[in-house]
Amino acid sequence: MRQAFGRLPAARPPLQDAARFTGGGAALAMTTDAFVVKPLVFPGGDIGKLAICGTVNDLCAAGAHPRWLSVAVVIEEGLDLDLLAAIADSLAATAEAAGVEVIAGDTKVVERGAADGLYLVTSGVGELRDDARPRSDRVEPGDVVLVSGPVGDHGVAVLAARHGLPLDPPPRSDCAPLHEVAHAALDAGGMSVKCLRDPTRGGLAATLNEIAGDSAVRLRLDEARVPVREETRGVCELLGLDPLAVANEGKFAAVVSPDSADAVLEAMRASPLGEGACAIGEAIGSGPGTVTLRTSFGTERLLPMPSGELLPRIC
Amino acid sequence: MRQAFGRLPAARPPLQDAARFTGGGAALAMTTDAFVVKPLVFPGGDIGKLAICGTVNDLCAAGAHPRWLSVAVVIEEGLDLDLLAAIADSLAATAEAAGVEVIAGDTKVVERGAADGLYLVTSGVGELRDDARPRSDRVEPGDVVLVSGPVGDHGVAVLAARHGLPLDPPPRSDCAPLHEVAHAALDAGGMSVKCLRDPTRGGLAATLNEIAGDSAVRLRLDEARVPVREETRGVCELLGLDPLAVANEGKFAAVVSPDSADAVLEAMRASPLGEGACAIGEAIGSGPGTVTLRTSFGTERLLPMPSGELLPRIC
User: Fold this and answer.
1) Is 80 exceeded by the pLDDT of residue B5?
2) Are B1 and A73 in contact (CB under 8 A)?
3) How far separated are the first and last CA of chain A, in Å rounded?
4) In chain B, which residue's Cα lies nearest the Cα of A103?
5) Which residue of A181, A216, B12, B191 shows the fewest CB atoms closer than 10 Å?
6) Three-class SS of residue B271?
7) Which of A260, A162, A146, A269 is nearest to A199 (CA)?
């Protein structure tokens, strides 16, 4: 994730989902994420699966092949041991599916009442591709905005589970490791994939606002082209949320130069987790970094950066 | 730290303070640690300084030069912002002193009552030396046990602060990054440094029991030669603790072949953080992995692995 702790240098390059560094001559990327989701288990996933997916997807978004992960666990005294074992199994199975090795770990137990049962922190190291360089500050006017499938499913699943909404079937999180579909897009587009991002907290709205700001462009989406499942839209209406500002954990947004957009889209659609991929907008000019939405009524409105109440604890 | 989460393969090499891996052809090490210390600030340090030192020292113990760190922060809503800023500054200053870069971060805020104010999780990647290979399973009979200075200071400082013991001056934690003194020892001893460990939770007793078990040797210490500050010994008596089982955050234990012990000791003593280094015992034979203590009365007793109440939250 992009949030940083402590002081940052005054003039710095924009924060990416993972940091690039050169270790012993190798081009690597590193990322870390804390997971404090409530409830610990939700339809489509749990905190263990989420912790692996979040880190794998951040590394992919930096153009890296995810390889080695560490997991630190803060456990509240009294946590049900069967639940803990199920979460550990889910974490291990997701790591295997994503082709990453968990090579380091730490466990701390804290008193009853702290840590909401369980917090997980995963960090990951990946090997950077040399034929792609997705970054949030490379987008130019004319570039096309793609999304790998319908948005808002993760946040809606977690919120419905937390509030005990009586929905049948309950909405499912899209939580999934995106290494295959993300690297399929990078294989197809190479350097023409200007930016790749997994729109987690704050959803597509937050991610696109960050990209627009970092690249100093204006992004315009067509509301009618942004894929949202009917069920997800329904829960959003019930809870007063904008699906574009709701978290995803198994989707990415890509911004691609226009001559490569079709090839990248085709590559994404050929991958099971990218079947629902589509083009949803474009960078229409340089500017102060805003995102606008062309509504189905033909009007155009600002899609603001979500804040406060719109950023519930969903990861 | 060595504690692992989830299933481990039945036959596995002993866990080390950091995991070794080869990334893009480079020999690297990775480690992670969760910090949940109470109180957040104590004489000699705070949770920010501790988080950097713990990760730096684990990488050194694996024979790596610590280089890149990530920091994840879980903040309790309502945490005093000046305190948070002071901890972030301390973290940044310690990272600078240790010569490491914090390249990735994440921040999560949880509800009031959770997270005891603040938890920190640091992960780190270092570059492995090719001229040294300290591991817990390389110790052989005849090897000499060294310690870089007096033990027990960190645990005692934290416990005295937590319990508000009216001591003047209050005991100070030894919390410090050990990169200089650890690599001075490795420069001097190379492959003869069989094992290097920072004895954190469970102190020297836990660390030496792990080494004895992993190497299947018997380690014997001379109680009179184990350095313990008078003030630390006093607080331990007051609280009913064994200073050998109390945590350190600025010391390491090394096990070195006998022909190199003097040179390694001399190198350690030449470094400001190793001035109090001394030889405290030896590996006296193969065996089931026990540690014994020759007391000042001439008797010999088992130094057991600490457990339960002896492992308070000091990091």
Assistant:
1) no
2) no
3) 11
4) B19
5) B12
6) coil
7) A146
Render the burial of A114-128: b for 16+ CB within 10 Å, e for the rest.
bbbbbbbbbbbbbbb
- Which tens digits make up the pLDDT trace of B47-72? 999 999 999 999 999 999 999 999 99
- What is the percent of chain B where pLDDT is above 70? 94
Measured between alpha carbons, how far is A293 from A278 in angstroms, rounded to an integer?
16
Residue A171 DSSP symbol: P
Domain boundaries, chain B: 12-128, 144-302
Phi, psi of B310 (to 5 degrees): -80, 0
Smallest CA-to-CA distance from A218 within A299, A278, A140 is with A140
**Residue contact B23–A23, C-beta within 8 A:** yes
For residue B268, the tally of other CB atoms under 10 A from its CB is 26
Torsional class of B181: left (φ above 0), alpha (ψ -120 to 50), beta (otherwise):
alpha
Superfamily for the B12-128 domain? PurM-like, N-terminal domain (3.30.1330.10)
**Could you tell me where the beta strands, DSSP code E, fall in B83-117?**
101-110
B12-128 and B144-302 share one fold: no
Low-confidence ranges of chain A (pLDDT < 70): 1-12, 308-314
For chain B, the 3-state helix, strand and coil shares in percent, each to the nearest 5, are 35, 30, 40
Of residues B270 and B285, the one with the higher pLDDT is: B270
Distances (CA, A) of B145 to B15, B16, B155: 20, 18, 22
In the block, tokens 């600490």 appear at B306
Q: Which of A132, A146, A135 is nearest to A271 (CA)?
A: A146
Alpha-carbon distances, residue A55 vs A121, A315, B26 (angstroms)? 9, 12, 22
**CB within 8 Å: B125 and A72:** no
Please judge whether B32 and A89 are an interchain contact, meaning their C-beta atoms are less than 8 angstroms apart.
Answer: no
Residue type at B127 in one-letter notation: E
Looking at this predicted complex, what is its ipTM? 0.90
Average pLDDT over residues B161-189: 95
**Domain topology for A144-302:** Phosphoribosyl-aminoimidazole Synthetase; Chain A, domain 2 (3.90.650)
B209-240 per-position pLDDT tens digit:
999 999 999 999 999 999 999 999 999 998 88
Report which DSSP code applies to B305.
P
Which residues of chain A have a CB within 8 Å of the CB of B91? 5-6
Query: In whole angstroms, what is the distance from residue B39 CA to residue B19 CA?
Result: 30
Question: Is B174 in contact with B249 (CB distance < 8 Å)?
Answer: yes
Nearest residue on chain B to A87, alpha-carbon basis: B6
Is the Cβ pair B30, A115 closer than 8 Å?
A: no
Quick count: other Cβ atoms within 10 Å of Cβ A52?
29
Work out the number of other CB atoms within 10 angstroms of the CB of residue B171. 26
**For an interface test with A, which of B2, B21, B119, B121 has the most A Cβ atoms less than 10 Å from its Cβ?**
B121
Are B73 and A33 in contact (CB < 8 Å)?
no
Q: For residues A58 and A276, give the distance between their C-alpha atoms in angstroms, rounded to a whole number.
A: 21
CA distance B182 to B254: 9
State the number of CA atoms in the 13 A half-sphere of B116 facing the CB: 22
H/E element, A83: helix A81-98
Is A91–B6 a contact, with Cβ atoms under 8 angstroms apart? yes
